[in-house]
Specification:
Blueprint lengths: L5 H26 L17 H6 L5 H9 L4 E6 L3 E2 L1 H8 L4 H15 L2 E6 L9 E5 L4 E6 L2 E14 L4 E7 L3 E8 L12 E2 L10 E3 L7 E4 L17 H22 L4 E4 L31 E4 L6 H18 L3 H5 L8 H7 L1 H28 L11 E4 L7 H13 L4 H7 L4 H16 L16
Antiparallel strand pairs: 1-2, 1-14, 3-4, 3-11, 5-6, 6-7, 7-8, 8-9, 8-10, 12-13
Length: about 450
């Protein structure tokens, strides 16, 4: 396949990137609770505006966050199950990825894609940098038919202060940089790109790529063979969110205008003022009574609006969202107290746990490729270890008592101590630190004597 010139790559990827930005902005707004206001007739929209804004109940953020909070990497494994504590501390924790990996995962769940850029550090002796990138600013192009081969990476962003638009193109061999004037909303034509050179910052219009491959990596929470990947807010979830908001808006309007019991009276002669205008015969207050001398006068009140149907409809809509997103309805409805035991809660979370494992499968491969490049740039021979894998925290929810009980039973049947600690969700660095502390305690006679574990008889 004939390759493109740098300018052709730039123009193609810039166009493709702009084609994604509307969907990214829409998903981002739903996550932040900035939903489209519920529909009402245009003639009353202004009068109901405050109620419509109050009706927006943001469940989309819960859908993303409940999944993202269970995606926690805990260590690196090399061939033979060897724990790479040094690699973990240098390349993962050295890049603050305990925190920043969460932003990558949330981005993939929220707007379909997350990205990191791996690049040599400017500080001598420091590990290569692994930095999250904004999905509205970057894009990766793959070899047709092989998503494991990245042909080009592209980043385009705007500097509001300098009023400039900047672009960077990575190919396996070269790095290209351009800049263009930016006119904000007045920009009506395509940018006029020129080479971007800033020697003090190490930026040149054309330079060799020290990585030898495209250093931009794309994370997909749910890849697809054809078409766009899917995030947690795809598949009709935002439509259900709109439906929930509409139901709440209707309930608020009804509560505001029809929940106060209206009074009625019959057989009463309405007094008039000196101009012949009817005068309200009673002043309503909690400390006033309605009285009439005529025995034919009757008082009464209309029943208040019944909101039970609105509440039941809201419950049903939220449960629909729970089914679609594979999240326990107890989380979305705020009814966790109804679960009577830890076992019952675990049963309701089975689908969520399995979904999180699927997301981990998708994310792991990309993290491993990014870490291999970081090791390669650090001249670490383990970069060629194809068996390298990322270890993750257990996605299942257990109470502390259940975890301790499970750990005790695993130890009883002979599971090694380190594996038990990994099962409990500790990172490799934490396990290493605990192991050193255990050795010190043992040397000081502070640990009980360990008895041999009896062999488990064959079934």
């Amino acid at each position: 396949m004939a390759d493109r010139t740098p300018e052709q790559w730039r123009d193609k990827l810039s166009k493709d990137l702009r084609g994604r930005q509307a969907d990214i902005a829409r998903m981002e707004s739903y996550y932040r609770g900035e939903h489209v206001l519920p529909w009402v007739p245009s003639e009353v929209r202004d009068a109901y505006l405050a109620l419509l804004r109050m009706a927006r109940t943001n469940l989309c953020r819960l859908v993303v966050d409940i999944t993202a909070e269970r995606l926690r990497a805990t260590g690196i494994r090399f061939s033979g199950g060897v724990r790479g504590v040094d690699a973990w501390e240098r390349h993962w924790q050295g890049n603050n990825l305990d925190l920043e990996s969460r932003m990558v995962h949330e981005s993939a769940l929220k707007v379909r894609r997350g990205f990191v850029l791996v690049w040599p550090s400017d500080v001598k002796g420091a590990a290569p940098t692994i930095t999250p990138e904004d999905p509205s600013q970057v894009i990766v192009e793959y070899e047709p038919g092989n998503r494991r081969v990245r042909r080009a990476g592209y980043k385009e962003f705007v500097d509001d202060v300098a009023r400039k638009r900047y672009a960077t193109l990575w190919t396996p061999e070269k790095v290209y940089n351009w800049s263009a004037d930016w006119y904000g909303i007045r920009q009506i034509s395509e940018p006029v790109w020129v080479g971007w050179d800033d020697a003090p910052a190490g930026i040149y219009s054309e330079a060799d790529n020290p990585a030898g491959e495209v250093p931009l990596f794309e994370f997909l929470a749910k890849p697809a063979l054809k078409g766009e990947p899917m995030g947690e807010l795809d598949g009709g979830v935002t439509n259900v969110q709109d439906r929930i908001n509409k139901g709440i808006a209707d309930r608020l309007v009804t509560a505001n205008f029809a929940s106060f019991p209206q009074k009625w009276v019959t057989g009463l002669e309405i007094p008039q003022d000196e101009n012949g205008q009817d005068v309200e015969p009673f002043k309503m207050a909690v400390n006033r009574l309605f009285m009439a001398e005529d025995p034919l006068v009757k008082f009464g009140e209309f029943s208040v609006a019944d909101l039970t149907g609105y509440l039941a409809s809201h419950d049903r809509d939220v449960r629909d969202m729970a089914v679609m997103t594979r999240i326990p309805a107890t989380y979305l409805l705020g009814e966790l107290g109804r679960v009577e035991s830890g076992t019952g809660l675990t049963a309701t979370e089975t689908s969520l746990s399995e979904k999180c494992k699927e997301r981990i499968d998708s994310l792991t491969e990309t993290w491993e490729m990014a870490l291999r490049l970081s090791l390669k740039l650090d001249n670490d021979e383990r970069s060629t270890d194809t068996a390298m894998a990322l270890a993750w925290k257990n996605t299942e929810h257990w109470s502390e008592a259940e975890r301790a009980d499970a750990a005790t039973k695993l130890s009883t049947i002979g599971v090694p101590w380190r594996n038990v600690m990994e099962f409990l969700g500790y990172t490799d660095s934490e396990i290493e630190d605990m192991d050193n502390n255990r050795a010190e305690d043992a040397a000081n006679g502070l640990l009980p004597t360990l008895t041999a574990v009896p062999a488990v008889p064959a079934a």
